[in-house]
Amino acid sequence: MVALPPLGATLDGELVSAGRDGSLAHVQELRRETILDVYRRVRPAVLVVELFPFGRKKFAGELLPLLEAAHDAGPGRPVVACSLRDLLVRDRRDQRAHDERASLLANRYFDAILVHADPSFARLEESFRPRTPLGVPVLYTGFVRPLAKPGSGGGERRATVLVSAGGGLVGAPLFAAALEAERLLGPRTGATMRLVAGPFLPEQDWRRLKDAARGRDGVELVRSVPDLRAELRRASASVSQCGYNTALDVLEAGLPALVVPFAEGREDEQLRRARRLEELRAVRVLEPGRLNGRSLATAIDELRSFEPTSPRLDLDGARETARLLAGGTLARPGVAAAAR
After folding, report:
1. Bridge partners (DSSP) listed for residue 80
2. How many other CB atoms sit within 10 Å of the CB of residue 188?
């Protein structure tokens, strides 16, 4: 594990220096040189890049030099793979140009694209449509579940509605609506509402949430938990956004779940994931544009009669990814034909 000088983003998506290492340009140079230095020292057999070139365009300045170094390493060069989740954001202003640029870069630098999904649930071509076809194999690994914490068995279900929003960075509207929903539901449901704010909920939102929850007997408020999956196993119902990891945690817990996907700006990944899970009767969905205390209270009340199904999805993606990479599968001839 090598920590890079941190970068952050403004509300407009512009990168900024998030540490004490100086200007943005200086931090970007430090990151680029650190990555290249680690590559030269480690001389890896396998290089895995998350999302780029299908996303992370703002990090091209540090990733392209790394990919060039791997590409120019000669006969002993590493296998280079791109790691993707199930769905790509599909609502960019320059979507056609973005897809074309990504396809050209993937064809030049990568040996395989690893899609961490079950192909019966989502396929790459549904959200990626370049003019130049991908010439590298696209391999579906199955979904990669979050790593289970030791001793996280779960225990007995409690009459608790667990409200979460991943890391919490954009969870404030959901938490505010949840507190209003709990007030409207009152003691009628007999369930406590437990809100897990998340470590990245902005401090001012956290303080506002604490003030609003103060003195509320039916509300438990915690900043973060070490294992959300264990919390879900003990809850009677879940209300959450629909990020990749949260969705898998909810599916594994098998409890009645309502998802309110994050879909601000051009972000449509969570909404598309949520709708597909709803089609499988695995979750209920409250459209983000309808989120308020009253609509959330109604949806939570309806969860009491909802019995979720357990969709037959491949959840063994961690093992399959390791097999493909560490087992040398990608280096064997003919893998491209087999992947198609």
Report:
1. 47
2. 8
